[in-house]
């Protein structure tokens, strides 16, 4: 039987989206699998993380990171397996956390890798979710910026997603009353019954703003913002004096081509920030890996081990399905942390 050709499949940015990304904005290519030189490793991608920030990298607008060039491999965190090692510190079969993007194979000199150890073999995708960047984002947003006190009210946008689901569970551990916001009855039921939030409000409900206010009779002390749009419009009037708003994104606006329709709410927002002494702090989690990441790993591993923090993963099988999965993620069709299983 002839051997299978040594081919590396990869997905590159074919064109910059005009609004919401479309399948034609991505291109699946085939290339030869690279050969490691002395001191290098050949990595095979096992799991690929899909995250909202990828939409920003597809645009050439100014941002915290440079845009992808046309024809460049789409970016993304990965759990990868060492298949060939010419590096003294890594063995074939080792699992590592890397940033190889949307491709099946990649080379590394080892400097950009985090060994995951034997324990990761039981659930390696957790390194991209609850024990990875989304989990650390939730931890930093709530504990370092929000600084919750027992009895305060914490409201979590996208409460069934990778960041919001973890943040809300940490808030419960810290003794807060936690109100989630999610899209659809199934997600809200999961947030309440499986994750233990006090209540979850369906953002699609025509009576959403009134129900959110009823769920927060004492106002809102901490609101994690990752959505924007009508969700924030409903939150703003409920914010207490000295409320804290950690901001990690605004997914409702990522695909917009211009300013949203409607009245200018900036004067209302600025007045509220001043009169109620509200603190809003945006952050990029990559800035904080040297400050607090070890503490996060210690706490989160303990919470996951004893069942106090749970995570639902939305697993997509096959690299070729990554574009559709990212499009669905940006449209709110995912349920949990979106991970592509690229290899067994």
Question: Features of this protein?
Answer:
344 residues; alpha/beta; seven-stranded mixed sheet; six-stranded parallel sheet; 9 helices; 24% strand
Explain how this protein is built.
By secondary structure, the protein is α/β, with parallel strands linked by helices. Helices cover 25% and strands 24% of the residues. The protein has nine helices and 15 strands. Strands 3, 4, 5, 6, 7, 14 and 15 form a seven-stranded mixed β-sheet that branches. α7 (266-275) links the parallel β12 and β13 (279-282). The longest helix is centred in the middle third of the chain and has 14 residues, at 133-146. The two termini are 23 Å apart.
Short description:
The chain is α/β, with parallel strands linked by helices and 344 residues long. The chain has helices at residues 53-58, 133-146, 164-173, 185-193, 208-215, 229-235, 266-275, 293-305, 322-330; strands at 7-13, 26-32, 41-49, 78-85, 95-98, 105-108, 114-115, 153-156, 177-182, 199-202, 220-224, 239-247, 279-282, 313-317, 337-341. Strands 3, 4, 5, 6, 7, 14 and 15 form a 7-stranded mixed sheet that branches. The protein has a 6-stranded parallel sheet with strand order 10-9-8-11-12-13, with helices on both faces. A two-stranded antiparallel sheet has the order 1-2.
Largest sheet geometry: 7 strands, mixed
How would you spell out the order of helices and strands? EEEHEEEEHEHEHEHEHEHEHEHE
Average pLDDT, rounded to a whole number, is: 92
The share of residues in extended strands comes to 15-25%
Overall body shape:
globular
Low-confidence stretches: none
Number of strands: 15
Q: Structural class, please? A: alpha/beta
Number of helices: 9
Distance between the termini: 23 Å
Helical percent range? Answer: 25-40%
Radius of gyration: 21 Å
């Amino acid at each position: 039987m002839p051997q299978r050709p040594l081919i590396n499949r990869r997905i590159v940015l074919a064109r910059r989206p005009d609004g919401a990304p479309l399948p034609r904005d991505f291109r699946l290519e085939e290339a030869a699998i690279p050969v490691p030189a002395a001191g290098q490793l050949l990595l095979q991608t096992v799991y690929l993380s899909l995250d909202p920030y990828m939409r920003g990298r597809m645009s050439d607008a100014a941002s915290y990171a440079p845009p992808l060039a046309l024809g460049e491999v789409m970016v993304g965190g990965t759990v990868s397996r060492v298949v060939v090692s010419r590096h003294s510190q890594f063995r074939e079969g080792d699992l590592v956390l890397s940033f190889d993007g949307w491709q099946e194979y990649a080379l590394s000199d080892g400097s950009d890798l985090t060994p995951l150890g034997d324990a990761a073999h039981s659930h390696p995708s957790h390194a991209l979710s609850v024990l990875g960047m989304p989990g650390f984002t939730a931890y930093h947003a709530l504990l370092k910026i929000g600084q919750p006190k027992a009895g305060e009210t914490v409201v979590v946008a996208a409460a069934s997603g990778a960041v919001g689901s973890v943040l809300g569970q940490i808030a419960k551990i810290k003794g807060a009353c936690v109100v989630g916001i999610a899209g659809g009855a199934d997600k809200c039921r999961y947030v309440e019954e499986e994750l233990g939030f006090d209540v979850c409000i369906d953002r699609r409900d025509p009576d959403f703003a009134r129900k959110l206010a009823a769920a927060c009779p004492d106002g809102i002390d901490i609101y994690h913002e990752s959505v924007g749009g009508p969700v924030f419009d409903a939150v703003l009037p409920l914010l207490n004096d000295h409320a804290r708003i950690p901001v990690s994104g605004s997914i409702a606006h990522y695909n917009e081509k211009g300013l949203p329709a409607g009245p200018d709410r900036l004067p209302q927002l600025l007045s509220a920030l001043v009169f109620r002494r509200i603190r809003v702090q945006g952050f990029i989690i990559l800035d904080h890996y040297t400050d607090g990441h070890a503490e996060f790993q210690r706490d989160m591993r303990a919470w996951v081990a004893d069942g106090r923090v749970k995570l639902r993963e939305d697993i997509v099988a096959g690299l070729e399905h990554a574009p559709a999965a990212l499009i669905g993620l940006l449209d709110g069709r995912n349920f949990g942390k979106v991970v592509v299983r690229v290899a067994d």
